[in-house]
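The pair is quoted verbatim underneath.

:::
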Amino acid sequence: MSAVRPINPLSSTRLQPTYASRSKLSLVTIGLITAISSGLSVLSTAVNAAQMERISVTGSHIQRADLETASPVTVITHEQIVQSGHVNLENLLQEISAAAGPAGNATNAYWTSNGYGTAQINLRGLGINRTLVLLNGKRVVNGGTGANASVDLNMIPVGMIERIDVLKDGASAIYGADAIAGVINIITKRSQEGVKVSGKYGQTSKGDGKEKQINVSAGINQDKLTGVINLSYIETGAIVQSSRSPCPLKETTTGLNCIGSSSTIGGRAHLSDGTELQFNQQKGGNGDFFEAYDSNKHGLNWFNYLNAQSPMERLNVSASFEYEINSRLSLYTDLLHSQRQSNQIITPRSLKATPVSKDFIYNPTGQDLTLKNRRLIEVDTPHFFQDVDITQALVGLKGQLSDNWQWDVSYSVGRNTAKDGWSSDIDHKKVAQTLDMSQCSTTPGAAIPCGDFFGAYELSPEVIDYVTYSRLGTGGNQLSSANLSVSGDIIDLPAGSLSSAFGIERRNEQGWRNPDPVVLQSGAEDAIDGDVDVSEAFAEFNIPLLADLAFIKKLDLSLAGRYSDYSSFGGQSTYKLGLVWQVNDELMLRSVKSTAFRAPSVPELFGGTNQENLPTKDPCDGATGVIASNCLADNVPLGFSQDGSTVLTGVGGNINVQPEKASTLTLGLVYEPSVIDGLSMTVDYFDIEVENAIASVDGSNQLRLCYTDPQLYKDFCQGFSRNPITHQIVSLSKQPLNAALEQVAGIDSNISYNAELAGIVFGINLDATRLLTHENQAFPDAEPEVLLGKITADRGSFAKWKANLGLKMATAQWQGNWDVRYLGKADDQQGGLPIGRSVPSIVYHDVSVKWSPIDNFSTAFGIDNLFDTKAPYLTSWNDANTDVFTYDLAGRRFYLQFELQI
């Protein structure tokens, strides 16, 4: 029985352990220790077993002849990746049932902290920082536009992937820090026959969002040299948000109504008595016109300036080689280079609040005022762009010490460099100068021209040129790592060989970010520069306890430990204890108890202040009950309405943040009944507790907790400020800190059946995750924040159910696939009125047909989101009106692809 087996990627998880309670584990541990002690005392030298080919298995450093480990591993093969039709690795991985919560992708409007255009994976909804991404078992450099904390999946070309191993278990003792929720190990091709050319073209049913891909790979198979060279080009087109949803929506007692941004064309002002004014919005209209501000009348529909999918071009060049020096020694290398260009349209930039004298020449009101929320509509629609280069190189030697012992030494270095910016940004300091008669002049050719910002299309070209600039920032990441490991059999025991692995690792992680000088001087963003040195040592053992007994075909114990020494905070030890009990050829039980930790990343430690407009819901808008009373006590009047949907939020780092520690428990079974050939079933229980968790509480939740209990959550109440006249929130802070506790638990299950009848192969794969618990506790005395069954404002969905069903039917020349993705119902964490306070379950259908008329050629046609299922409306999401991390914005998509072997 093989406990690890490929699955349909859209049904995406081959699950393995299920676990019960910590008390039960303690009894199991005591029993195991007793069994080892008594067993070793009576063991005699066994006859050497015949040597078998040993391979590396994700979740262990021990090279072994079988695939059965104590940890649950899902395997997604190259064939299944091609079958899915995805050109981006992000789309494939984010659909698996173990994935939840936010991760960067092409269809979200807000992906911050220098990560625009990047794509990550978030297992268990615990955050991208807690999922470790490996390439051929080795760490790779983080990606983004400077001082980032996670690998950019876009750097790895899909055409080069042999398989993807998804380890859904804490693995810090095996791989070090960050492997709290699990590990994604991407295995690239090491050999290939001939040349393969593949391509894809796709677009949505509306004719936008075009996808183009061409991939060419060539295999090298000489006497002692094997390898693969791959070239891949991918282009994805834009989808404008207004083409999917005409306007941002807000629910009232009359239903869903369009709303507009409080930063308007023409600009606004408030007078000293609190009166709100709106200036002329019509091109060619009365330049001195103004009237009372009305959000329903004057607000800007920003969906015209927002992408539902952002365009991207990517070129990847990669190669893997292995040279056999002699029968016991080989040299190998992995090389990868990725160039990415991506951009997003953004709303016309808005002025900061600026006081203007009643005597200013262009002030039509005759009163002192504060000019604010004025969009610079006179400038062409600006774009935010990213140019990113990533290079990763590894060279290694591996060999045999003896028939039973192997060694591997390698050195890798990865470097990510990037630049990003806005085509037209505003220098707010210069804007203030053009609104001050003591500094500006109306004389033609003046060094500082006076600006008529009072009404749309009144600005002169000279003022526009003076106050705008092309914003450009640079940054990057670097990782260097040296590894040495040995593995082999220590002694033959009656139940098998006691095998082991030992190793040391030394690495350096760097991150830096250099904002545009104008931004730096304004204080909107600070520079980042930091690095961390890590030294580690590990040991791992697999101990066969019993074999070939009644009800015990095999009973193996695995032990692993790692010591990590960080320059930033000192040493940390982790361990892993696993048990594999193969009852017979049909049933296997497994369990793992482990500890894990995550060290603060470079941006979490060294990141300075960075101000970003993030989606945030003010709970005083439409408040009732206790929240309404507390808002009133904070001088926010009844009937208060929030301007827009974003708040200027300070994010960044905290030099005092400490590592977080986790304990993980998994219990599971694998059942393959002999009476039904091709059927297998798994059930797995997982429980992860993160103590001292590094967290940045999202702004909406900070505000909600503050106004729910201002005393208990006084720290959150001190983290934002309001305008004393308008009562709008003008600033908010969400720096990282060590929270008290975060816990997630659930059950994974899988049923897979494959059969052949009359030359037709049938397959069915049902994969599901039932979330049982997901709670956060901001500090020891705080009430736990229950996320189970909720959709949050910026952390995605924590629906109780997520499932994938894959159906396949194939002949020698034809193959058809029908994949169904199920997202369970959930409630909006912020509440709301009936339409937006909850969403029903959502089902997506994807179909494809593949034709292989000859051995070396195949073509396929597919439709994703066959029934054009729309994303549901949610209270907390004015941008896109839905959770962009969870639901499909693009709609129905068609694609045609081919693969040719030369």
The domain at 9-246+308-347+384-427+470-609+652-698+734-901 is CATH 2.40.170.20 (Maltoporin; Chain A). The longest strand covers residues 468-493. The first helix runs from residue 22 to 42.
